[in-house]
């Protein structure tokens, strides 16, 4: 792992930005209403950033004065992007879904986890590209997962049309796609002053686990027979889990760093298949065709 900052896996998001002033910076955080997203929003806003939350629930969105953002619905993504005006200094692609039990397809025919975690964010980032460029030195932060390491992107059957659907394989593939999104954007947008990096926040208990039943949690060793969560040595709390996203979105320490995979506030840990520029270009073309 490459030493990128003085921080560790136990550094909190608030500690990352201690003394930082993000006044005047406009930041969009998808999934900003709960979990890691909410902590990311809280810390960035406390540092002075003007933070907009991308949330799916219409009532919540209305209360925030923003359009609802459903990443599995490309029409919703397009409407949100049209609503945005002016520069965008950082886009934190944080929202996601994990381990959907059964194969589900969106209106565009994409498997739900791949659509939500990757395609929706691809559509949002590309639609807001001019706004990112307008900001100058803008940042794209794509939240991935260590689950990507064992699952290369299957270009032959990405939607599980022929191979048996496996919810964990589908999740891992979507997270490989997230890293490839950062690599692809870094390759294309450097001349616009836009950096793009992927992040593994680590193991944190949030609403992301809502599709994981107790039996599965027990089999994973994450829950005891009485239904009590078992803390693992590598488990993080929300403040620790949001730290690397906050580092990439707001810290001057990583200014100019692009096309990398970060975990525990440092570069490293990304699988070769997720950092492959040829795969990144191939997936970019696939996603671009889907949103055109």
UniProtKB/TrEMBL annotation:
<dbReference type="GO" id="GO:0016491">
    <property type="term" value="F:oxidoreductase activity"/>
</dbReference>
<dbReference type="InterPro" id="IPR036291">
    <property type="entry name" value="NAD(P)-bd_dom_sf"/>
</dbReference>
<keyword id="KW-0560">Oxidoreductase</keyword>
<dbReference type="InterPro" id="IPR002347">
    <property type="entry name" value="SDR_fam"/>
</dbReference>
<dbReference type="Pfam" id="PF00106">
    <property type="entry name" value="adh_short"/>
</dbReference>
<protein>
    <recommendedName>
        <fullName>Probable oxidoreductase</fullName>
    </recommendedName>
</protein>
<dbReference type="InterPro" id="IPR020904">
    <property type="entry name" value="Sc_DH/Rdtase_CS"/>
</dbReference>
<comment type="similarity">
    <text>Belongs to the short-chain dehydrogenases/reductases (SDR) family.</text>
</comment>
């Amino acid at each position: 792992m490459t030493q990128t900052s003085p921080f560790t896996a136990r550094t909190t998001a608030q500690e990352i930005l201690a003394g930082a002033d993000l006044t005047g910076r406009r930041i969009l955080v998808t999934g900003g209403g709960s979990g890691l997203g909410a902590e990311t929003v809280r810390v960035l806003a406390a540092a002075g950033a003007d933070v907009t939350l991308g949330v799916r629930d219409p009532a919540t969105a209305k209360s925030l004065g923003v359009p609802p953002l459903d990443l599995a619905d490309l029409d919703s993504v397009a409407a949100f992007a049209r609503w945005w005006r002016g520069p965008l200094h950082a886009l934190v692609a944080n929202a996601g879904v994990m381990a959907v039990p059964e194969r589900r397809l969106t209106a565009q025919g994409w498997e739900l986890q791949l659509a939500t975690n990757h395609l929706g964010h691809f559509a949002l980032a590309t639609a807001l590209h001019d706004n990112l460029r307008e900001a100058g030195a803008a940042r794209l932060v794509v939240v991935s997962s260590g689950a990507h390491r064992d699952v290369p992107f299957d270009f032959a059957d990405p939607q599980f049309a022929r191979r048996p659907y496996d919810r964990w394989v589908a999740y891992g593939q979507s997270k490989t796609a997230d890293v490839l999104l950062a690599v692809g954007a870094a390759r294309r947008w450097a001349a616009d002053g836009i950096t793009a990096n992927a992040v593994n926040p680590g193991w944190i208990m949030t609403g992301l686990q809502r599709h994981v039943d107790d039996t599965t949690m027990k089999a994973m060793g994450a829950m005891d027979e009485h239904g009590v969560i078992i803390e693992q040595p590598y488990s993080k709390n929300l403040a620790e889990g949001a730290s690397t996203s906050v580092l990439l979105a707001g810290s001057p320490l990583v200014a100019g760093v692009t096309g990398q995979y970060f975990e525990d506030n440092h570069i490293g840990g990304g699988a070769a298949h997720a950092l492959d520029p040829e795969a990144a270009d191939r997936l970019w073309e696939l996603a671009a065709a889907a949103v055109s």
